[in-house]
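Here's a chain:
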Amino acid sequence: MQKNIFLTKILAITGTVLIWIPILLPIAFSVSRLISGRRFVFDFLMPAELFPAILIGAGLLVWVAFRTRSHRKLVFWSLGIAVASLVAGQLLAVVTGLASGEREATGIWWFLVTASIAIYNLAVIALGIAGIALFLKQYFPDKST
């Protein structure tokens, strides 16, 4: 039994770290660039570019959610929304010509693609919060929900 608890803790930690790295890297790079004396630039597309890391982390969190029977709805809903909004935004960008540069990045199509990426980023943050909740559930089982 002790081996299973240790494995679950490792899965929760690893999954949570893999989720938060693509969220925190653009913030760190932006602050670094600002401190170095240049202007503030934030790459909101980086979490979408690092989707493979997020997908691996989400897979680990799904595994932990099944093992612990905890926070399953938050993990599944946030993962589903993240994947759906990323796929929808990418398909919309390709279909409208925004991805190839055929269409200028303005107007309603640009807004919809950008909004889908924003929804994706928020869903990934929710997944990261679910990872923290699963982590806390492992280390403090009587104090977290």
The two ends are 22 Å apart (CA to CA). Residues 1 and 137 are 17 Å apart (CA to CA). The chain has a mean pLDDT of 88. Helices lie at 2-35, 46-49, 51-68, 72-96, 107-139.
